[in-house]
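Colleagues,

For the teaching module next term, I've prepared a clean inverse folding example: a structure given as tokens, and then the sequence designed for it. I'd like students to try predicting residues themselves before seeing the answer, so please don't circulate the second half yet.
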């Protein structure tokens, strides 16, 4: 099978040493040493491998203890699913199975890290397609058990939110600003459209940054709405990317779509009304769409989705007195979204942190990045205990995940 692999060669986080065995051999660790102090002594030697297989992208990355991305590779299944107009779960699982081991070799080579130099493994455990998640999870369990490494189960959506803390000078530019917290985080992707309040606190030398859900979508996720409307417009999968490009030639004012849920009291998103309005507008044009009408419809729909996301995000920021906003997830790659968020934040005097496009869409660097934080908190599995780590399709089932 041919891979479409992007290889990027390009560091703050800590560990609780009692769960991390391999480093014990390198650094003499003392009981009750604060995680941050331990991490600093590990310096550049520490390496974490991240694996991601929740949907239609198999991905692997190697980071050091400071969340510096040493290598980040992605095998996209877009060509596999494009002819079906969306992700076919069984095909996704089968392709993860084919891709994951070669991809791991690639990322180890790319980061110049032999497997024997990997100190911990982080893997996505949910939410996502169960069959796909299990491929990554089982691969990670086997590796962790065989090499006696700590294993961290990472939540995909929470990882999107923390991608802003990755260290990659090419993607972020030199000396990028980072949120200090508390901050408002928008995670906007194909499966999720949610706003979180993230509080940061250092306890006994270890950073804790818990996400509290403030708003979510009542129906479709923004990416899902993009994908469905793109299909109605006859545009290829993945629809969000296609609408982004199609909109370049369209007039965003050609069709008027109402802004959903304008009330400041309603801290929720909804995209199904916009999707229906788009369908009715397409039907209203009648007959096959001209290139001009298709571009106008794409641009008008994109404007409405972006308008709703921006409106709600800033409304919730105001309501909670939050002045820092992080935007993450696949849809955050949308160029119009990025410019409207930037302009609105500038006008309102709020600090905006846009995740670099390369880390918006699914990747394993963000999984390894959050994995580092979870390790620092001691939230990981060792040895036979990793058998208990399970995958979940929906965040609602996450509470059922047992911890070791
Ligand atoms: O985060 P992601 O890669 O996977 C999920 O966790 O869902 O997000 C995928 C979603 C898809 O719906 C895709 O259409 C959308 O992100 N997307 C975009 C753009 N790039 C990807 N939507 C709008 N504009 C884009 N440039
Ligand atoms: Zn994602």
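(Answer key — instructors only)
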């Amino acid at each position: 099978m041919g891979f479409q692999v992007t290889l990027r060669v390009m560091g703050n986080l800590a560990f609780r040493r009692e769960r991390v065995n391999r480093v014990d051999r390198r650094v003499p660790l003392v009981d009750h040493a604060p995680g941050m102090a331990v991490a600093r002594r590990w310096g550049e030697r520490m390496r974490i491998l991240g694996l991601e297989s929740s949907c239609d992208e198999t991905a692997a990355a190697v980071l050091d203890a400071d969340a510096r991305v040493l290598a980040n590779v992605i095998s996209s299944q877009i060509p596999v699913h494009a002819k079906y107009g969306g992700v076919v779960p069984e095909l996704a699982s089968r392709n993860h199975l084919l891709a994951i081991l070669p991809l791991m070799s690639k990322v180890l080579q790319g980061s110049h890290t032999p497997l024997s130099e990997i100190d911990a493994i982080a893997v996505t455990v949910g939410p996502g397609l169960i069959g796909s998640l299990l491929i990554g999870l089982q691969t990670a369990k086997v590796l962790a058990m065989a090499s006696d490494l700590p294993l961290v189960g990472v939540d995909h959506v929470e990882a999107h939110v923390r991608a802003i803390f990755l260290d990659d000078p090419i993607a972020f530019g030199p000396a990028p600003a980072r949120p200090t917290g508390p901050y408002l985080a928008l995670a906007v992707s194909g499966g999720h459209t949610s706003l979180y309040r993230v509080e940061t606190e250092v306890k006994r030398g270890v950073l804790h940054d818990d996400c509290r859900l403030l708003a979510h979508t009542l129906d479709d996720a923004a990416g899902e709405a993009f994908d469905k409307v793109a299909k109605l417009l006859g545009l290829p999968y993945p629809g969000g990317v296609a609408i982004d490009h199609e909109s370049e030639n369209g007039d965003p004012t050609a069709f008027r779509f109402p802004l959903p849920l304008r009330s400041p009291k309603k801290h929720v998103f909804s995209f199904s009304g916009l999707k229906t309005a788009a369908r009715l507008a397409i039907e209203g044009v009648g007959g096959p769409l001209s290139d001009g009408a298709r571009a106008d419809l794409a641009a008008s729909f994109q404007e409405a989705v972006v308008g709703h996301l921006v409106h709600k995000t800033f409304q919730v920021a105001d309501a909670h007195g939050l002045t820092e906003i992080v935007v993450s997830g696949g849809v955050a790659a949308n160029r119009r979204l990025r410019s409207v968020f930037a302009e609105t934040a500038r006008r309102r005097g709020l600090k905006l942190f846009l995740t670099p496009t390369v880390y918006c869409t699914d990747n394993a660097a963000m999984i390894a990045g959050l994995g580092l934080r979870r390790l620092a908190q001691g939230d990981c599995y060792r040895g036979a205990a990793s058998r208990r780590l399970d995958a979940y399709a929906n965040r609602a089932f996450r509470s059922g995940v047992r911890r070791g």
